[in-house]
Write a structure and sequence with these properties.
2 strands; mainly alpha; two-stranded antiparallel sheet; Serine Threonine Protein Phosphatase 5, Tetratricopeptide repeat; 2% strand; 2 domains
Length: 312
């Protein structure tokens, strides 16, 4: 290693020592009994840290940013399970050093465990928009949360429209806004959002989660092909199908073949509703999406109950 490399390494070590020193000094000037979450992790309030940081706000922010990254990196399962802790850490980071960039989107990616976390992530993203008004990405993630998790199309449109034409903004943003205005069930808008999120995901885990949702969209698209074929079957025969395979049966079938179920499973008729659905999901996409906020609440309740029973 050359002299320049050694100097760089020494500089990094000194910087880390500086961060640690300033942070320890800041902690020593405030009560550690501030903002302890349900996870037991203490994260001091940003306003107290700002007072105690002796002007080194950015260095203290770096310390908490490293902690947030480590929480995600050390997670054995879904990092979004740590949403409340990540929210407190990123709140500190973006209030002490609001000119940072990636932490705002980091919050959007991982703070999705509950509706409360999502709304907190949205507050952080709005802070990012205020400090980075020309960065289209914060608006994109905020619009996605509003549309996908909170079912608020009007808010998503209002968030995304100003991003059209911003530096670096992709051309499809205008098409996405148009879709949100015209696409009442949101299927095509979901696809456009998720395709970009898969493309720009920061790691394989986040990409895989978005891929799962994109797979739901594709499954719904194919189910709708079957819905249309079912209507044609009824017009031709004057009766409904008894099973999905009726669509490819007979001398003049409505379809030559069934569209494959994307996960390799089968198509069936729901015994309760009679709707065509995938045996992999057992539910149609629009119901799944419209109930996503309530489903998050229910998952939070179930997770809390498991924890109380000592089931992890």
């Amino acid at each position: 290693m050359g002299r320049a490399g050694s100097v760089t390494r020494i500089s990094k070590v000194l910087l880390l020592l500086g961060v640690a020193g300033v942070t320890v000094a800041a902690h020593g000037r405030i009560s550690l009994a501030t903002d302890a979450g349900a996870d037991g992790r203490v994260v001091p309030r940003p306003e107290l840290l700002r007072i105690a940081s002796l002007g080194f706000d950015a260095l203290v922010a770096d310390y908490y940013w490293i902690q947030a990254v480590q929480v995600v990196g050390a997670s054995a399962g879904d990092p979004s399970e740590h949403g409340p802790l990540l929210g407190r850490l990123i709140d500190v980071v973006t209030k002490l050093d609001p000119w940072v960039g990636h932490p705002y989107r980091f919050a959007a990616i991982w703070m999705v465990d509950t509706v409360q976390s999502i709304r907190f992530a949205n507050e952080i993203l709005q802070r990012g928009i205020a400090y980075h008004p020309l960065d289209w990405r914060n608006r994109f993630y905020l619009g996605f949360n509003q549309f996908y998790f909170l079912d608020d199309h009007a808010a998503a449109i209002a968030t995304l429209e100003p991003a059209v034409g911003l530096p670096g903004a992709p051309r499809y943003l205008a098409r996405l806004v148009a879709r949100l205005r015209l696409d009442t069930d949101g299927l095509e808008a979901s696809a456009l959002f998720l395709q970009e999120l898969v493309r720009s995901a920061p790691d394989g885990y986040a990409s895989a989660e978005y891929e799962k949702s994109l797979d739901e969209v594709e499954t719904e698209r194919r189910a709708r092909v079957l819905d249309a074929a079912r209507q044609e079957y009824g017009r031709r025969h004057g009766r409904d199908i008894a099973r999905v395979e009726d669509l490819i049966a007979g001398a003049a079938p409505v379809l030559r073949r069934l569209p494959p179920e994307p996960n390799g499973w089968e198509w069936t008729l729901d015994p309760e509703t009679g709707r065509i659905l995938s045996t992999y999901y057992g539910v149609r996409y629009e119901v799944h999406r419209q109930g996503r906020s309530e489903r998050l609440r229910q998952e939070m309740i179930e997770r809390s109950a498991r924890s109380e029973r000592g089931e992890g």
